[in-house]
Amino acid sequence: MRAPFDPRTEAVGLLRRLIAAPSPSREEGPTADLLCAFLAEHGVRPERLHHNVAARCAGYDPARPTLLLNSHHDTVRPAAGYTRDPYAPTIEGERLYGLGANDAGASLVALATVFLALKDRPLPFNLLLALSAEEEVSGEHGIRALLPTLGRIDMAIVGEPTSLDAALGERGLVVLDCTARGRSGHAARDEGENALYTAIEDIERLRSLRFERVSPLLGPIHIATTVIAAGTQHNVVPDTCRFTVDVRTTEAYTNEETVELIRAAIRSEAVPRSTRIRASVIDEGHPLVRAAQAAGAAPFVSPTASDRTLMPFPALKLGPGDSARSHTADEYVLLSEIGAGIDRYLHIIENTATAYGNQTLG
């Protein structure tokens, strides 16, 4: 006879197996296989696209609202300072060590086991589990490819290490490759038009550029010039200067609008690498936010980006672990954090269910 389902035991066991299966971005095949097998073992039919794995609750009805539970199973590559095997899951006291344990393995296993605990229960909305790939590189075969195949989604919980607090917003990101043009000449004769000077003038304009609209939650748009390159030798006036601009956007303007306003302010050419990473804000009055606060989650604005920026519906980012441990050597998560994450997810879903249909999970 099979033992009763224990989310904490299952979550820790699954996380150890995930750590032991290397899954750098775009190479998540082994963990996708593992997750499909895990869901099948617990009576769920997994759906797979590339290395993304999804599952739907019993009685899934496209006519009902849908709550998405999402986290990612890809990792960055091990940091140079590791003193232990990053792929050897090791428990020492309260700590579970291993690459991806904190970002975002703990959130993923907590959401997966909460989904399994609730998949057969009556709720006023569908539960949809999506365990995505390529999050760390914003890859084209990650959540961006998966979302259009999942059908209607009304809201989401995105699992990332937030110390179980509720991230109500994230800035978007636009990286601009800028080119200032000039005319070469001999430096000794003060000839030509120095492209470097044009670039410097534009960089100063960007430092002082202010946008009329300011996000109530995220504040003003942030612009930083981060890379610059010009010239070939000391006695030649450079005719080209290239510089890179990091723009952290808000919902006050679309990314495209932000790019056009920047272009209007400078002489240099400005070409965005992408405009798809958009700012994400959820209204403080949304049932998910109220449910999270009722469960004890403090609201904040996240300094880091996630797959949430690709979701065109209200999404709350929240999960066990500490963002400061992400991408660090000897990454770990506390076992107590995993258990607390399971409890918080359950409470949030229960409180949201009450708001939607005056039901509890009883």
Question: Can you give a write-up of this model?
Answer:
This protein is of the alpha+beta class and 362 residues long. Strand 4 (90-92) and strand 5 (95-97) form a beta hairpin. The two termini are 25 Å apart. It has a six-stranded mixed beta sheet. It has a four-stranded antiparallel beta sheet with strand order 11-13-9-14. It has helices at residues 7-19, 29-41, 101-118, 143-146, 195-208, 255-265, 287-294, 335-357; strands at 47-49, 52-56, 66-72, 90-92, 95-97, 126-132, 155-158, 166-170, 172-181, 185-186, 222-230, 236-237, 240-249, 269-272, 280-281, 299-302, 315-317, 332-334. It is built from eight helices and 18 strands. Helices cover 29% and strands 24% of the residues.
Percentage of β-strand residues: 15-25%
Largest pleated sheet: 6 strands, mixed
Order of helices and strands: HHEEEEEHEHEEEEHEEEHEEHEEEH
Helix content: 25-40%
**Strand order within the widest beta sheet:** 1-2-6-3-7-17
End-to-end Cα distance: 25 Å
What form results from the Cα inertia axes? elongated
Number of helices: 8
Uncertain stretches of 5 or more adjacent residues = none
Kindly name the structural category: alpha+beta
Rg, rounded, reads: 24 Å
List the helices and strands and how they pair.
Layout lengths: L6 H13 L9 H13 L5 E3 L2 E5 L9 E7 L17 E3 L2 E3 L3 H18 L7 E7 L10 H4 L8 E4 L7 E5 L1 E10 L3 E2 L8 H14 L13 E9 L5 E2 L2 E10 L5 H11 L3 E4 L7 E2 L5 H8 L4 E4 L12 E3 L14 E3 H23 L5
Parallel strand pairs: 3-6, 3-7, 7-17, 8-16
Antiparallel strand pairs: 1-2, 2-6, 4-5, 5-18, 8-15, 9-13, 9-14, 10-12, 11-13
Helix pairs in contact: 1-3, 1-8, 3-8, 7-8
